[in-house]
Amino acid sequence: MTFRTFPKAELHLHIEGAAPPKLIAGLAREKSVDIAGVFDERGNYAYRDFLQFLKVYEAATQVLQTPEDYRRLTLAVLEESAAHGVVYSEAFLSPDFCGGGDLAAWREYLHAIREAADQAEREMGITLRGVVTCVRHFGPEQAKKTALCAAETADDWLCGFGMGGDENAGEQGDFAYSFDMAREAGLRLTTHAGEWRGPEEVRAAVRDLRVERVGHGVRVIEDLALVDELIEKDVVLEVCPGSNVMLGVYPKLAAHPIEKLRERGIKVTVSTDDPPFFHTDMTKEYEGLARVFEWNEDDFKALNQTALAAAFCDDATRDRIA
Ligand code: ADE
Ligand code: ZN
Fold it and tell me: Domains (ranges, CATH) in the chain?
């Protein structure tokens, strides 16, 4: 089967982390911004470990300075996703990088991103929805500003709120105020947990932030009672196998727990996270799962049904895509 054209839904994609290196390098030249250290000699993003990855990620965002830059970024990202058969994508959007958490600025960035999304939908048949994300290592006070941006712009398109960044910075519960604000504005919730820290972190995410999806969450495999609790609560995992292998959470795909988690009965979905950083795309993710775990067409169909059912979009959008 040809995986490239197989219709896919992707729920976990950071828009800046999906930036083609050429776009970032081109913007750096145009604006004369020095981003030394972001790329290796071959023009790939260069980092050694997770914390350096976060630094390089943030350094690359320094060239994304205007709504027009985000319009170009969004188009480039969606073009790449559509080329890999993605028909529905949820992207993490960061008011922290789009105007520093200022609401008026954020509105302008969001407008530009949505213009690009409309164009991509018309021209490439890919549907994008936005999930505002706060950055954990920027701290709870900054997250409140981010949550306010999210709450003030929440609608059918801007439909979720989440948190990424360094999982070792503070506790999930430190961000409860922001997640409560987002929930009250009607936003659906997800947070990165169980990528670096163990099962206890996922337990805290569900208990303290009341999220319905978890970004990564793979380390719950270390606590089967928790896996069963998550099944009972219908929590869905946004699993990013290529990301986990590239960042060293697992040494190789064969050691990744996605198959064990699926067998146990927890709902898993598959995404790329930050594709150029991890030298991956949705085609490669599917090819890997087929090769290593012998997933077949029916498995991938079921995977996408799970993803669409867990998508934060409204039912009319879901029905149109399914
Ligand atoms: N931001 C972008 N990618 C991330 C990841 N894999 N974990 C946490 N924060 C992120
Ligand atoms: Zn992520």
Answer: 8-18+65-316 (3.20.20.140)
